[in-house]
Every structure is written in structure tokens, then in C-alpha cells.
Design goal:
The chain is mainly beta. It has one domain: Beta Barrel (Maltoporin, Chain A), CATH 2.40.170. It contains 5 helices and 35 strands. The strands form 5 sheets. It has a 22-stranded antiparallel beta barrel. Strand 31 and strand 32 form a beta hairpin.
Length: about 700
């Protein structure tokens, strides 16, 4: 196992100290804020810089404060009005984002946005209370983003952005990023119990205790069991524990958080369509009942923030231990005797910090503010890949001890040049150190260093009649798996391989409009373009994605609407269309496999007196499954509904129906070769190309009783 060296310790100790030293000097030299030209300040919200602006949901106005048309926030109110089948679906509140699952249980979801199959998080990042959640050099997929540890009732808000235009967001943020926030203090205590179809049970307790010191201690605990509709029961157990100690307020304060999560499950992976068609299995069946896994995450983090009329500073530090044992079988029985099962093993220790200092100042007579930030992170990883039979290892493909370090300074300036024009300009640098110090194949050991700088620029015009226009351009990046970055030999064939590029750059541009010209209606429209230096494609026999060596180009349009029709009726409707193609022309074709083309999400929510009811629909459009476009996935259309009533003394009951019309949809679909047990060898033993599908679960009912206090 890679162990911290004096160099690691030195980096970890000196950098935070140096940053605090510099910011303290800057703060001590802050001059009184210059008097602003009244015309320059006209229309600039919050020009005094004194009040904290807290936006809690889509019903709040972002005109005058947002940097783009596709930046937004979702609050607990909207989350509580949505039927949610699994924790990761809190991100489906982000317009255009689709969450699916190609296995089951505690495995990370798959994410689709802006023409990208983001796999398990490669180009979409998320954080919780300042702690980054994506995992690089992961056993199952680069940027692996597992959100099963979330307790939705504790989420105060989800702040999101799209595109590579924000200096604060770096690795895995090309397509978008989300910052989730847990409550420092719950509005009220909560106890609930849910029971549902297929042995679904869930209990939650959460409450905030005010201590004599003025501090708030928030505790949350969750337990879940679910068998699902699968022929081999999911038998998924999930346990979560959260403790958060907070002092101060939104302007000046700090908090400490401790979290623990453990999950264990038996999954049903995607299966060949021909096995269903010929009656070998049902659409909820499996070729290998030993697939599944277990995972854990235990974290400790702290944050501190301070703000006055001259400046604002925030800092967060975190560390967590993470583990995963994942057993999968995507190709069936090329090995007719033992099957094609494999285990992906991941153990890691993560530590890092995130610091930012903003100074509110003048640029001549103009209003301006500049933020200087520094982020660093260290992942010490033990990762392995094994061939298995009934979860027993019989061959080691490879094991690696990895240390991955990143150091990312960034700067961003916002200046109001005129009453109706402001700019946001940023520059971010990302340095990475990749170190594979102990590989099962010595030839694949090595180190590599890489650096990339990415500029960002946003031009914002308005508002006129509660309408703003945004123009944006910028570049972004994601890191690649350390094993691919330093490897020289294929561990299976023994052939020489070309090492992957350490960092993959992307380029983006966007034009958007945000309007609130109609009272109660908040609408946005955006036209966007994204180009990636190297696309990733799904490889069925490995059950993962690999670089294709081809540039990808995508563009599209998004339209969002959120309408408070009356105090008791809310309607939302979000549409997204996109097109993805490889930049070059090759005989196999130009289509990017699994590039999402069209999505729709919308709903109606009624909330009057003690009653609350909602109906939501989600359309997940067809995708090209191979480069020539000859094989396509099916589309899906799922409707969920809920209704509930709350009495004045805090008691409430609710009923949810997921997949209301019992659509026989597919949650995920791929096209690649496989072989069934007893099936003859395919051409040159290459198996048989087929659609491999993972069914969406059928109609489910869930009933909840809860008490607030």
C-alpha cells in the first residue's frame, strides 16, 4: 500500500498555512470600499455586499445573480414534492439530467446529460458540504460517483452548473457540477417509516438539538431494505448515519460533520435480449446470480466561513475512507465452465482541502470582486481486478497501489462595467501527480506529472424586463485512470500498449437567456457546444469505458420552465435535445455510442392546506449503440405519482406509485458480443452481438407514515 512520505506531509501542512497567511495579509490591507458611481451600481443586486443572498429553490429569482442560463438551485421544498426511487435521483432535479442503473442496489448510478453517457460520473462532478464525491482511478469507472449514502430529507439545496465555464469546478466537471448542502439546522425534527412493494422498507430519524453553547447538533440515521422485482432478490441493505455540529450563522460560522455508510446487495446485471426472447430468463432474470457487492464510506469534514463588507473567506478540510467489492458478469459464458464473472476491488483513503478568499473592491469607479482559490486532494488507493466464480477469485488480472495527488489554484473576477453589463473571467490550473508504485506487473509501475490551465469567460447583458442574456466560453478537463496513464503492458495479452493521456481537455461555448417577464414563470433557453479531445466508449467484455482516440463534438438546445401558477399549484417542464458525433470520418461510423439525444422531464404539484400531490413524467430518448447508427436503444417514458396529507400536529401519511402505468421500459441498453451457457462458439469465438438490457422496475407502491416535531 502506498504510504504518505515526508513530501506528502510537507505538502499537506505547508499549503494550507501559506494560503491562510496570504489571505490574512490581504484582509488586513483591505481598504474601505470605494464609493461607487451610482450609474455603475444601478441594477447591480446587493451592491452594498452586506447581506447574504440565500437561494433555496427554483421558485427564487436568479436574474441579476446567475452567471448563466443553465445555472440554478433546487431546494428541499421541490425535493419533498418528487417521488424518488433511489437517492441519486435527487440530481434528476437538474434539468436535462437522466439517472439510470445497469445493475442494481448499492452500485453508483449512470448519468446522462448534454449528449454524454457520463458513465458513473466521468464528466459530472458532485460535492456534499464542500467534500468532493467523484473517485478517480476507481475499480469500476473513472470519476465514479456513488450517491447511495445521501439522506434526501437532510438536503437543504442542490446548486448546479453546466459546462466548463466556472473556475471553481475542475476535474470531472466538463459537462456539469452539483454542490449538495445538508442543513446546519433542520426546520423541524422528523421520524418516518416506509413500506412498499417487493419488501421495500425504510426508516429515518433526524433532528437538530440546540446546545447551551449556542451550537446546533444535527443527527440523522437511515436504514433501508429492498428486494426489487428481480427474480434473484436484490436483498439490498443500506445504513446511513450523519452527525453535524455547527456554530454561527450564514456570514460567520463553522461546522464539523461525521458520516458513515454501508451497503450490501445482490444485483442483476444487464442481460442479452436473445436470452429473454427464447425464454431462458424473464426480463428480470440473470445469467449469474452471484453478481452484487458491498461498499462503505466513512468521512470526517469541517468548514469555516467569514464574510463582511470588504471580503469573504471559506475553507473546508475533509478525509474519508472508502471501500468497494463489486462482482459483475456482463458477457455470460465465453468461459463455459466457470463463466465470465469478475471482481473489482477498491480501497482508498482520501484527504484534501478547499480554500477561497473573495475581496469586494472597486475597479476605478466600477464595482468588482475577485476570488482566489486553492484546492488540493490526495487519494491513496489499492485497486484490483480478479476473475471469479461464485464470488471466489481464481485468477488475478492485476493489482495496483496508487497515489494520486492534485493541486488546483484558481482565480475569478466579476466586474460590473455598466448598469446592464457585467463579466465573469476566470483561470484555473490543475496539476496532477500519478504514481503506481506497486503493480502486479512490474513493467506497469511508474510515475507521471501533468498540468493543464483552463480559461473561462462569461458576458452577461441585462436585465431588461426581468430578462438577461448570457454568452460563455471556456475549456475544462478530466483526469484519466493512473493505471492507463503509466501502463506499458496489457496484463492479459502481454502486448505493449500506448499509455493514455494524463488529462483530457474539452472546449465549450454557450448562449442563453433567462427570463421572468411573466409573473411566477421562470424560463431559460440555451444553445450549447462541447468538444472533447478524446471520447470514451463502452467495452462490454471489460464492463467499463475506454478512450477511443477520437475527438467528439456535441451541440444542443435546452428549454426549462418553472411556473408558480397559484400559491397551491406549480408546473415545471424541461426539454433537452442534443447531437453527438465523432469529429473524424472512419469506416465504422461517426455516431458516438450511447450519446443521449432527447429528454423531457415535467410535473404538476398541488399543495393546499394539509394536502400535497404530484405527478411527474420522464422521457429518456433513443441512443445510437454503435458507431454506424444501425443499432439503437429503445426510448422510455416513466410516470411517477404521490399523494399525502399532513395534520396540524405534525403527523402525515403519503402514498407513492413509481412507474404508474407499468411501462415495460429498459433502464439501460448496450450492444456488444456475449455468449450463453451451452451456446455454440460464435464467429472466431467472438460470441454473438446482441442488445444487452437492464429492465426498469415495474409498478411499485410505497406508503409512508411520518411525524415532525
Amino acid at each position: 500500500m502506498t504510504r504518505p512520505t515526508p513530501r506528502h506531509i510537507c505538502i499537506g501542512a505547508i499549503l494550507p498555512a501559506a494560503f491562510f497567511f496570504v489571505t490574512s495579509i490581504v484582509h488586513s490591507q483591505d481598504a474601505p470600499k470605494p464609493k461607487l458611481n451610482p450609474e455603475a451600481a444601478l441594477g447591480a443586486p446587493g451592491a452594498t455586499m452586506l447581506d447574504e443572498i440565500v437561494v433555496e429553490g427554483r421558485m427564487e429569482s436568479l436574474v441579476g445573480t446567475a452567471q448563466s442560463a443553465t445555472q440554478g438551485t433546487v431546494g428541499q421544498t421541490e425535493l419533498s414534492r418528487r417521488p424518488i426511487a433511489r437517492p441519486g435521483e435527487v440530481l434528476e432535479t437538474i434539468p436535462g439530467l437522466i439517472i439510470t442503473q445497469h445493475a442494481g442496489g448499492g452500485k453508483a448510478n449512470q448519468y446522462f446529460l448534454r449528449g454524454f453517457n457520463l458513465d458513473h460520473g466521468t464528466d459530472f462532478s458532485a460535492s456534499l458540504d464542500g467534500v468532493p464525491l467523484n473517485l478517480s482511478t476507481h475499480a469500476h469507472g473513472q470519476g465514479y460517483l456513488d450517491l447511495n449514502f445521501l439522506i434526501p430529507e437532510l438536503i437543504q439545496g442542490v446548486d448546479f452548473v453546466k459546462g466548463p465555464y466556472y473556475a471553481e469546478f475542475g476535474n470531472h466537471s466538463t459537462v456539469g457540477a452539483a454542490k449538495l448542502r445538508y442543513f446546519d439546522e433542520l426546520p423541524q425534527g422528523l421520524a418516518l417509516a416506509t413500506a412498499g412493494t417487493d419488501n421495500y422498507y425504510r426508516v429515518v430519524y433526524a433532528n437538530t438539538f440546540r446546545l447551551k453553547t449556542g451550537a446546533r447538533l444535527t443527527l440523522g440515521i437511515e436504514g433501508v431494505h429492498d428486494d426489487g422485482a428481480w427474480d434473484t432478490p436484490l436483498d439490498y441493505y443500506r445504513g446511513n448515519l450523519v452527525a453535524k455540529y455547527a456554530m454561527g450563522d450564514a456570514s460567520n460560522g463553522w461546522s464539523l460533520s461525521a458520516m458513515g455508510y454501508y451497503g450490501d446487495w445482490t444485483s442483476t446485471d444487464q442481460v442479452p435480449q436473445r436470452a429473454i426472447d427464447r425464454g431462458d430468463i424473464t426480463r428480470f432474470g440473470t445469467l449469474d446470480s452471484s453478481t452484487g457487492g458491498d461498499t462503505y464510506r466513512y468521512s470526517l469534514s469541517g468548514e469555516w466561513h467569514r464574510k463582511d463588507e470588504h471580503s469573504a473567506t471559506r475553507a473546508s478540510l475533509y478525509t474519508y475512507a472508502y471501500g468497494l467489492d463489486l462482482f459483475s458478469n456482463f458477457t455470460g459464458f465465453f468461459d463455459q465452465e466457470r463463466g465470465d464473472g469478475f471482481e473489482q476491488f477498491d480501497r482508498r483513503w482520501v484527504a484534501g482541502f478547499d480554500l477561497a478568499h473573495t475581496r469586494f473592491h472597486g475597479l476605478g469607479s466600477l464595482r468588482s470582486e475577485t476570488t482566489l482559490g486553492l484546492q488540493t486532494r490526495s487519494d491513496t488507493i489499492r485497486v484490483g481486478l480478479y476473475q471469479t466464480e461464485n464470488r471466489n477469485r481464481f485468477y488475478t488480472v492485476r493489482t495496483d497501489d496508487v497515489w494520486e495527488l492534485s493541486l488546483s489554484p484558481w482565480i475569478e473576477n466579476t466586474t460590473w462595467w455598466a448598469p446592464k453589463f457585467r463579466t465573469v473571467a476566470g483561470l484555473r490550473g490543475d496539476y496532477f501527480h500519478f504514481d503506481d508504485s506497486d503493480s502486479s506487473l512490474a513493467a506497469n509501475e511508474g510515475t507521471k506529472d501533468a498540468f493543464m490551465a483552463n480559461p473561462k469567460l462569461s458576458l452577461i447583458f441585462g436585465p431588461w424586463a426581468n430578462t438577461e442574456l448570457y454568452l460563455q466560453a471556456g475549456t475544462g478537463m478530466h483526469s484519466n485512470d493512473t493505471r492507463g496513464v503509466v501502463s506499458r503492458i496489457d496484463p492479459v495479452s502481454g502486448d505493449r500498449v500506448q499509455a493514455a493521456s494524463p488529462l483530457t481537455r474539452s472546449y465549450g461555448a454557450e448562449v442563453g437567456i433567462r427570463t421572468e417577464a411573466v409573473a411566477g414563470l421562470r424560463s431559460t433557453v440555451s444553445l450549447w457546444y462541447l468538444e472533447s479531445d478524446d471520447e470514451t466508449v463502452f467495452v462490454g467484455d471489460a464492463g467499463t469505458t475506454e478512450p477511443s482516440g477520437r475527438k467528439g463534438q456535441r451541440y444542443g438546445v435546452e428549454l426549462t420552465n418553472f411556473y408558480d401558477v397559484t400559491p397551491w399549484l406549480t408546473i415545471d417542464a424541461d426539454f433537452a435535445l442534443s447531437r453527438g458525433r465523432f469529429a473524424d470520418t472512419r469506416p465504422e461510423g461517426q455516431r458516438i455510442p450511447d450519446a443521449i439525444q432527447a429528454t423531457f422531464a415535467g410535473g404538476i404539484s398541488l399543495h393546499e392546506g394539509g394536502w400535497q400531490a404530484s405527478v411527474r413524467a420522464r422521457y429518456f430518448g433513443p441512443r445510437d449503440l454503435i458507431e454506424d447508427g444501425s443499432e439503437k436503444s429503445a426510448s422510455s417514458f416513466i410516470v411517477n405519482a404521490q399523494v399525502g396529507y399532513k395534520w396540524g400536529d405534525g403527523w402525515s401519511v403519503a402514498a407513492e406509485c413509481l412507474n404508474l402505468f407499468d411501462q415495460h421500459s429498459k433502464d439501460q441498453e448496450y450492444y456488444y458480443p456475449s455468449r450463453l451457457r451451452g451456446e455454440p462458439e460464435g464467429p472466431d469465438d467472438g460470441g454473438y452481438n446482441d442488445h444487452h438490457v437492464h429492465a426498469a422496475e415495474p409498478r411499485q407502491f410505497r406508503f409512508t407514515v411520518s411525524k415532525t416535531f
